[in-house]
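Hi everyone,

Forwarding the result from last night's run.
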Amino acid sequence: MKLNIKIIHWLPRIICILAILFISLFALDAFDPKLTVWQQIIGFLMHLIPSFILILFLIIAWKKEYIGGILFILIGLGLSPFVFIHNYNMNQSVWLSLLIILMITIPFAIVGVLFIISNRIKRRRQAFNENNKQN
């Protein structure tokens, strides 16, 4: 039972870190030999702004799982239409755009659900322990 609780505790955190690292890879396209070093660094940091925001949300979720879970669900589901439309306009393929949604935004919605599940399991366990102490 304790192993399941540890898995549920760590799974959203690990998936979120991996998803943020994946999103951060897109910042590498800021490096262009035609630009100066400073232009490349500024471009790289600007491309990393979404990653910094996601790291901030992960810190919030780490402390307050329920609030963090809601934030990640909102990010995952809220940004999906925008990412879909942007990619559909670029490649005119519904299936490719859906695949991109599955890779970029849906992992954050899954992370949000896992944070909420983790929070509920911990609250139930805490309530169960308090009831056992009273009896």
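The chain has a mean pLDDT of 92.

Cheers,
N.
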